[in-house]
Sequence to fold (191 residues):
Amino acid sequence: MEKILPEIQQRRARRALSSQEIPDELLQRLLQAATLSASCFNNQPWRFVVLKKDFGIALAHARLSQGNYWAKTAPVIIGVATRPDYDCELDEGRQYALFDCGMAVQNLQIQAQHEGLVAHPIAGFKAAELKEDLGIPADHILITLVVIGYPGTDNELNDKHQELESSERVRKGLDEVVFPGTWPAQSRSAE
Ligand SMILES: Cc1cc2nc3c(=O)[nH]c(=O)nc-3n(C[C@H](O)[C@H](O)[C@H](O)COP(=O)(O)O)c2cc1C
Fold:
């Protein structure tokens, strides 16, 4: 594992965040890294709504799921939105807008990790309501909020989240998700 890039190896979905402000220049760098992502036909389907103190972040706070209370400490939340027709739409359900947004968020996460920041994407928020609050058109998908901040203390996290901060990484084994050459017959019949 020591040959895995440190930014990938060390990145965690941490919830213990500091409220320390993030310099604008650094935030711009994260967004730049996101937009350097690959996309189908270079369609660049991602749109980012940057929320900060006095610039809309309270709107996001009001729409977080209960379990995402910890995100209220972060100085920045970025809403990631797209529309399916901003990107390739091919046969077999191969719609690439969300895929490419995911790639862009991953770039942002890796750059954030490199800069000593936490960038934690979340799905737990009321998307329809928040879209309206932020003026995002109804035909767009607000796929995630990326909660960004410097690492902080875990004093204000609940017990479960305190435990998760230092938990072992849980991953399926490669043998469960990597199929050499052909799909395994066993799981074909189970589907
Ligand atoms: C699309 C997506 C949605 C997620 N939603 C939430 C969320 O709503 N709340 C939360 O605390 N973590 C959320 N997470 C974080 C995951 O739980 C976390 O990435 C996963 O448990 C793996 O842990 P690791 O990122 O530390 O390796 C989300 C992650 C992704 C990629």
Remarks:
- The longest strand covers residues 141-149.
